[in-house]
Design a protein that fits this description.
mainly alpha, 8 helices, disordered N terminus
Length: 154
Amino acid sequence: MCPKIRIKFAIYLLTGLSLAACSDDSADTSSSSTTDTTSKLASTSSSSSSEVPAEYGAALDKAKSYATTMNMSEQGVRDQLSSSSGEDFPDKAVNYAMKNLTGVDWNKNALEKAKSYQKDMDMSDNAIREQLTSSAGEKFTATQAEYAIQHLNG
């Protein structure tokens, strides 16, 4: 990757991290909203045979946010939830969140990321594909990246 693209990519990643930090700050400052969400989860789970710990519900809420507002890949969401540099949820909470994260179109997320790379960073299809599938990048599957590339200009 040439230095110009690396700089653009670093700026793009920092922008995404800033957005994540801002969404974390807003979630932390609205404790009544968090309390309402926790109460809803608790009331929903209390009707079932086992209660869901609040931390599991929080992990699921974060997973939904990352998947729907930041168009992250499934592996990217999992890594963000479990990373000590990210949310640092315990493995059981992460597994619960990922198992219960429904209705996410991972192909659509890959396509949205691809569109962003194309528009904001003027990347080629091959560079976008590499970025989407890279373990240091977005971590989409090869199939999801291929879907994104095929639908990029359509």
